[in-house]
Design brief:
By secondary structure, this protein is α+β, with helices and mostly antiparallel strands. The protein is built from 13 helices and 15 strands. Strands 7, 8, 9, 10, 11, 12, 13, 14 and 15 form a nine-stranded mixed sheet that branches. Strand 1 and strand 2 form a beta hairpin. The protein is globular, with a radius of gyration of 22 Å.
C-alpha cells in the first residue's frame, strides 16, 4: 500500500480500528459521474469492513448514462434498455480513505469504475484523467495542479430555493466584498466550518476570500498531484453544499447565476520530472514549458466541451468580465485564457476558461492532453498578448455548447488522445443537454412574449 496522502487521511488499518471501536458507523463509497457529482452508497461500517473493503461493490452502469436530472437517455454505447442496464464495479482506491468531520461517524472512500471482467470503464472521468497522467509519466513527468473554485452563498435554504423556483434568493452579502475582511464577516461562520471540515477530511486549506458578486466567495487549497486535486475538488464541492444546508443556507457553483460576475474555476498546472526536478524553468521559461503552453492553446477549442460542459457555462464568456474570450496567453495577465504565473519552481500556467460547474477530472485531462500534444508535436508558442486580450483580435473561445460539441466530435486530436469511445460518449452528453434546452420555454421568453407578441 502506498503512503498516506497526508497524516489526516486514513489507512485501511486505521479505518478498521475506528470501525471496531464504533467511532465509524457509516462509510460512503463514491465515484464521480459525468457531471462532476459524487455518486455512490452509504454503507454500514461493519458490512463495509466484512464484505466491501476487500473487493468493492457494484452499481448500475446507467450512472454514466443519465442527464443532470438522472433521466435515462438514449445514445450511449455503454448503457441502454437494449443492453439491460447491467452493473459496473466500484473499485476502492484506499489512498482516498478519509474522515468526513461534518458527517458524524462517517468515513469515505473514492472509487474507479471497471466492468465486471475488471476492464476499466474508459468513459469514467477519473479513468480519463488517470490515462493522461499515465501518458505524462511515460514521458518522465508528474503533473501538479490546483483548482480555484468560486461559489455564491445565499441566506435561503435549498428547499426554499426550490419552492421559489431559484428566483429572488437572498445573497449572503449585499455588495462587492472582493478581499474585504469586513464584508465577509457575516458569512465567516459558514466559511470557517467548511475550511475546518475540509482540513479534517485531508485537504490542505489555504484561505478564504470574498469575490465580486453579492454572496460570492472562494476557498483556496494547496496544489497537489493532479489526481489528488481532482479527488479533493469533488469532496469539497459536495461537502460545501452539505454544510451550507446545515446552516439553512444554499450554495451554487453555477458558472453564471445571474448577469453579474460568474463563478470561475481557474486551474493552475505545472509539470515536474518524475524525480521531482523542475522542468518548466531554467533561468527563464524552458522550451518544454513553451511547447506545453502552445499545446494547451492549440487544443483549447477542440477540448472546450471538457472545460465548459453545460449550456450555462458559456454565459460567462463576456468581455471585461474576468472570464476569457480570446485564445491567447500572457504573463500575469488576467484578460487571457492562459495566464502564466510564478518563476522557478512555482512557474505554472493558469487556465482561466473553466467555470464553477466544471468536472475537474475532465478539465485536468484536457489540459494535460493538450500540453503533451504540444510537447510531442513541438508546437511553437504564439506571440504573447500585451495588454487587453479582449481587444486583441485573437480567435475567440466557443460561445455556445453547440459549437463546443461540434469542435469536440470533429476533432482528430481529441479522438487521438482520448479515444473514439470517450469522444462519442461526451458528444452524446452534449446532445442530450442541447435537446433538453432547445425544447424548454424560458422565463426570458415568457417575459418578452406572453403579452407583447
Amino acid at each position: 500500500m502506498s503512503p498516506l496522502r497526508n497524516h489526516r487521511h486514513l489507512s485501511v488499518a486505521g479505518l478498521q480500528t475506528m470501525i471496531d471501536n464504533e467511532d465509524i458507523d457509516t462509510v460512503i463509497v463514491g465515484f464521480t459521474d459525468m457531471q462532476g457529482r459524487l455518486q455512490g452508497k452509504r454503507m454500514h461500517a461493519a458490512y463495509f469492513a466484512d464484505q466491501v473493503l476487500s473487493h468493492g461493490t457494484e452499481g448500475c452502469n446507467y450512472l454514466l448514462a443519465v442527464d443532470i436530472e438522472m433521466n435515462t437517455v438514449d445514445g450511449y454505447e455503454i448503457s441502454s434498455w437494449d443492453t439491460g442496464y447491467g452493473d459496473m464495479m466500484f473499485r476502492l482506491d484506499p489512498d482516498t480513505l478519509r474522515l468526513l468531520p461534518h458527517q458524524p461517524g462517517t468515513a469515505m472512500v473514492q472509487c474507479d469504475l471497471t466492468w465486471l471482467d475488471g476492464a476499466p470503464v474508459s468513459e469514467s472521468p477519473r479513468t480519463i484523467l488517470k490515462h493522461q497522467l499515465d501518458r505524462a509519466a511515460d514521458l518522465g513527468y508528474q503533473v501538479l495542479a490546483g483548482t480555484e473554485l468560486e461559489f455564491i452563498v445565499f441566506d435561503t435554504s435549498y428547499p426554499d430555493a426550490w419552492r421559489q423556483g431559484y428566483r429572488d434568493l437572498e445573497p449572503a452579502t449585499s455588495y462587492n466584498v472582493d478581499y474585504s475582511i469586513l464584508g465577509t464577516t457575516a458569512v465567516e461562520p459558514l466559511l470557517r466550518e467548511i475550511r475546518n471540515a475540509m482540513y479534517g477530511a485531508g485537504l490542505d486549506v489555504e484561505s478564504a476570500k470574498g469575490e465580486c458578486n453579492p454572496g460570492q466567495q472562494e476557498i483556496g487549497f494547496r496544489y497537489a498531484d493532479a489526481l489528488i486535486t481532482a479527488d479533493n475538488h469533488v469532496v469539497y464541492k459536495t461537502a460545501a453544499k452539505q454544510i451550507a444546508a446545515q446552516h439553512d443556507r444554499s450554495i451554487t457553483f453555477m458558472a453564471k447565476y445571474n448577469e453579474r460576475e460568474g463563478n470561475s474555476c481557474h486551474i493552475h498546472l505545472s509539470l515536474r520530472g518524475t524525480d521531482g526536478r523542475t522542468v518548466f524553468w531554467d533561468n527563464g521559461r524552458t522550451d518544454l514549458y513553451d511547447r506545453f503552453i502552445a499545446g494547451a492553446l492549440a487544443t483549447i477549442v477542440d477540448f472546450s466541451l471538457f472545460y465548459a460542459p453545460n449550456i450555462n457555462s458559456y454565459k460567462r464568456f463576456t468581455d471585461r468580465s474576468f472570464a476569457p474570450t480570446a485564445i491567447g496567453w500572457g504573463t500575469d495577465n488576467r484578460t487571457c485564457a492562459v495566464r502564466l504565473v510564478g518563476e522557478g519552481g512555482s512557474a505554472r500556467l493558469e487556465n482561466r476558461v473553466p467555470g464553477g460547474d466544471v468536472n475537474p477530472y475532465l478539465a485536468l485531462a484536457a489540459m494535460v492532453a493538450g500540453g503533451l500534444y504540444g510537447i510531442e508535436h513541438d508546437l511553437p508558442l504564439p506571440p504573447e498578448v500585451a495588454g487587453n486580450a479582449y481587444r486583441s483580435g485573437l480567435p475567440r473561445f466557443p460561445h455556445t455548447l453547440s459549437s463546443a460539441r461540434d469542435a469536440f466530435t470533429r476533432s482528430a486530436i481529441a479522438r487521438e488522445v482520448f479515444g473514439d469511445d470517450v469522444v462519442d460518449h461526451y458528444t452524446n452528453m452534449a446532445d442530450v443537454e442541447l435537446a433538453a434546452f432547445e425544447s424548454a420555454v424560458t422565463d426570458w421568453e415568457l417575459r418578452r412574449g406572453f403579452e407583447r407578441m
